[in-house]
């Protein structure tokens, strides 16, 4: 079975470490916040200018001046700080964020990522995604392995305009966890009940199956 | 102290001198911390051909979106413009020019503009369409692109509290691009929820020192919420 969105978030959360500063993108990455282990202290960065994003507010706490990068109303946790957008991106571009999780349309064997523009369709803009992928060392891309009509999103070469070049090393799809090394996807883990053959079939870019490939457990 | 008293009484005075084809920098992220009433005054004045620099362009009927209704914006410099149907229509029909700029690069362009730095190198956007036509340099084995600073004829800013001297503090994440825009306007206009007596704001808590600010006005704000999310 392909992973659910919740399971994908759960799997990403296993990459968290106590004391990490983490930026979570919109969509599945946002759900990772629900799976931070209770024995860990992790600070979430929201690129509009909040370090220490807390839970959604109660009706009583609702504050139009308190939002996250997805423009949702949020709260600040104990230990949080708030700052301007240049300061926020100094943290990101200066490599101070320990882990960045974001979605994508495509990734390729060279670590290129395309996530912001589909030519001929509406162009909404890149927001902070180009800064995030250029600034972080440790990035996990979350996406479905193939499009709805079965086209692989793990490619020899991205077909869409790039968000960043050569910056992605880790990809979690609904079928597998893969790393990118030396011009190939390395299959490290399969989703429960998903065969290696199915992943090979749905990966257009060069794929190497790790000797110690594991099945994820939840 | 009259020479350093930045207060003005009306929105008309606040944007005195704004004319067609000027560049306006606007603070705000989404609908959070946007200078609602200064945008309204731009609409009332009917100036056209503006270049507007702001992270977003409001929504239909609110925020900078209202300036699209009468085609007052010729060019928009922004990082994300996906919340606005009229924007999309004008973009696709060629009525509106758009320069999409990564959010961190946009913030840094304003910061640099205000700080007298004409351009800077950044890794953001290297290898992407954003790098087209831009100088590339290698530092310590990594490639960077040259991005030029932005300044504006006017900066329109939303603060929380200000004093007569134009010292400003922002509230929570309504800070965002506001302090950066404030530094980079030839004429910087700040609208706030409250003007306090000099000395009330502690020197160490000021976000935007008054040296950057030309005019301060107090207004009332709708503060519309774009995505209202509450705990279940």
Automatic annotation (TrEMBL), chain A:
<dbReference type="InterPro" id="IPR004164">
    <property type="entry name" value="CoA_transf_AS"/>
</dbReference>
<dbReference type="Pfam" id="PF01144">
    <property type="entry name" value="CoA_trans"/>
</dbReference>
<protein>
    <recommendedName>
        <fullName>3-oxoadipate CoA-transferase</fullName>
        <ecNumber>2.8.3.6</ecNumber>
    </recommendedName>
</protein>
<dbReference type="InterPro" id="IPR004165">
    <property type="entry name" value="CoA_trans_fam_I"/>
</dbReference>
<dbReference type="InterPro" id="IPR012791">
    <property type="entry name" value="3-oxoacid_CoA-transf_B"/>
</dbReference>
<keyword id="KW-0808">Transferase</keyword>
<comment type="pathway">
    <text>Aromatic compound metabolism; beta-ketoadipate pathway; acetyl-CoA and succinyl-CoA from 3-oxoadipate: step 1/2.</text>
</comment>
<dbReference type="InterPro" id="IPR037171">
    <property type="entry name" value="NagB/RpiA_transferase-like"/>
</dbReference>
<comment type="similarity">
    <text>Belongs to the 3-oxoacid CoA-transferase subunit B family.</text>
</comment>
<dbReference type="GO" id="GO:0047569">
    <property type="term" value="F:3-oxoadipate CoA-transferase activity"/>
</dbReference>
From TrEMBL, chain B:
<comment type="pathway">
    <text>Aromatic compound metabolism; beta-ketoadipate pathway; acetyl-CoA and succinyl-CoA from 3-oxoadipate: step 1/2.</text>
</comment>
<dbReference type="InterPro" id="IPR012792">
    <property type="entry name" value="3-oxoacid_CoA-transf_A"/>
</dbReference>
<dbReference type="InterPro" id="IPR004163">
    <property type="entry name" value="CoA_transf_BS"/>
</dbReference>
<dbReference type="InterPro" id="IPR004165">
    <property type="entry name" value="CoA_trans_fam_I"/>
</dbReference>
<comment type="similarity">
    <text>Belongs to the 3-oxoacid CoA-transferase subunit A family.</text>
</comment>
<keyword id="KW-0808">Transferase</keyword>
<protein>
    <recommendedName>
        <fullName>3-oxoadipate CoA-transferase</fullName>
        <ecNumber>2.8.3.6</ecNumber>
    </recommendedName>
</protein>
<dbReference type="Pfam" id="PF01144">
    <property type="entry name" value="CoA_trans"/>
</dbReference>
<dbReference type="GO" id="GO:0047569">
    <property type="term" value="F:3-oxoadipate CoA-transferase activity"/>
</dbReference>
<dbReference type="InterPro" id="IPR037171">
    <property type="entry name" value="NagB/RpiA_transferase-like"/>
</dbReference>
């Amino acid at each position: 079975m392909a992973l659910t969105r919740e399971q994908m978030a759960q799997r990403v959360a296993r990459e968290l470490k106590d004391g990490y500063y983490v930026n979570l993108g919109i969509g599945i990455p946002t759900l990772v916040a629900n799976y931070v282990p209770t024995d860990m202290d992790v600070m979430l960065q929201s690129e509009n200018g909040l370090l220490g994003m807390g839970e959604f507010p109660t009706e009583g706490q609702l504050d139009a001046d308190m939002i996250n990068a997805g423009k949702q109303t949020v709260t600040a946790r104990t230990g949080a700080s708030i700052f301007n957008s240049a300061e926020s991106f100094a943290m990101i571009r200066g490599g101070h964020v320990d882990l960045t999780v974001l979605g994508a349309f495509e990734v390729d064997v060279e670590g290129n990522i395309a996530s912001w523009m589909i030519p001929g369709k509406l162009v909404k803009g890149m927001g902070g995604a180009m800064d995030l992928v250029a600034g972080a060392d440790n990035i996990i891309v979350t996406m479905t392995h193939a499009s709805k009509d079965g086209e692989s999103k793990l490619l020899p070469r991205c077909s869409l305009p790039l968000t960043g070049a050569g910056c992605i090393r880790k990809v979690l799809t609904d079928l597998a966890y893969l790393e990118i090394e030396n011009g190939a996807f390395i299959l490290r883990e399969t989703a429960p009940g998903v065969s290696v053959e199915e992943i090979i079939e749905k990966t257009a870019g060069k794929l190497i199956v790790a000797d110690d490939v594991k099945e994820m457990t939840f | 102290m009259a020479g350093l008293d930045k207060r003005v009484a009306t929105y008309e005075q606040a944007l005195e001198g704004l004319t067609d084809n000027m560049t306006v920098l606007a603070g705000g992220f989404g609908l959070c911390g946007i200078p609602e009433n200064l945008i309204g005054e731009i609409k009332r004045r009917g100036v056209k051909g503006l270049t507007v620099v702001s992270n977003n362009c409001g929504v239909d009927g609110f925020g900078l979106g209202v300036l699209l209704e009468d085609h007052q914006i010729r060019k928009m410099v922004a990082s994300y413009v996906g919340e606005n149907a009229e924007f999309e229509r004008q973009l696709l029909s060629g009525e509106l020019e758009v320069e999409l700029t990564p959010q961190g690069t946009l913030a840094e362009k304003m910061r640099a503009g205000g700080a007298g730095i004409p351009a800077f190198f950044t890794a953001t956007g290297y290898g992407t369409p954003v790098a087209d036509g831009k100088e590339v340099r290698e530092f310590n084995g990594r490639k960077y692109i040259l991005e030029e600073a932005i300044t504006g004829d006017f900066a329109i800013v939303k603060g929380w509290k200000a004093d007569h001297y134009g010292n400003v503090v922002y509230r929570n994440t309504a800070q965002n691009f506001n302090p950066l825009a404030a530094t980079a306007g030839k004429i910087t206009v700040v609208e706030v929820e409250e003007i306090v007596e000099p000395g009330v704001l502690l020197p160490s808590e000021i976000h935007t020192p008054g040296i950057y600010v030309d005019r301060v006005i107090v207004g009332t704000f709708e503060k519309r919420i774009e995505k209202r999310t509450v705990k279940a």
